[in-house]
Amino acid sequence: MEGSGGDVASPMGPLAKWKNEYSRAFQFYLDKSTPLPVHRWLGTLGVAAIYVLRVGCGVSYGAAGPNGLYTGFYIVSYGLGIYILNLLIGFLSPKIDPELEALDGASLPTKESDEFRPFIRRLPEFKFWYTVTKAFIVAFLMTFFSLFDVPGQYCYAIGLFFLPSQ
Questions:
Q1: Which of 25, 137, 147, 148 allows an S-S link to 142, with CB 3.0 to 4.6 Å?
Q2: Interval 104-113: pLDDT, tens
């Protein structure tokens, strides 16, 4: 039958082909970095240092501070801090909450036959690292747009304006 599509290769556009090759190469290097946690975290520390240098004493659209350096992007940094704190809580929390689980008596094993359940994180270390690194990169890219350099008091006032009163 013609057009059944089983063994006929579909033409792939050049953009889709490039995206497919890029995603494969990215996944390859991501997989190669999995057994190297120290190197991964040192890289993330480097990305965080670049972000801090950009926000703390880099070129910004704000006014110069007392030492002649430009600072800004407080809302971006605040959002980044809250997001990383949320990820850290997920990283330090158990996957199964013992308070929500129905327990029969004591929570610690008392007999040899009791099942041992190791601590399993809600957010694995690799996903925690990957998400923190992506968050720093996105926050760094946001510093190149003056749209995100909003003073904190304006965001606070807008938030109070739109909060429903009770």
A1: 148
A2: 555 666 666 6
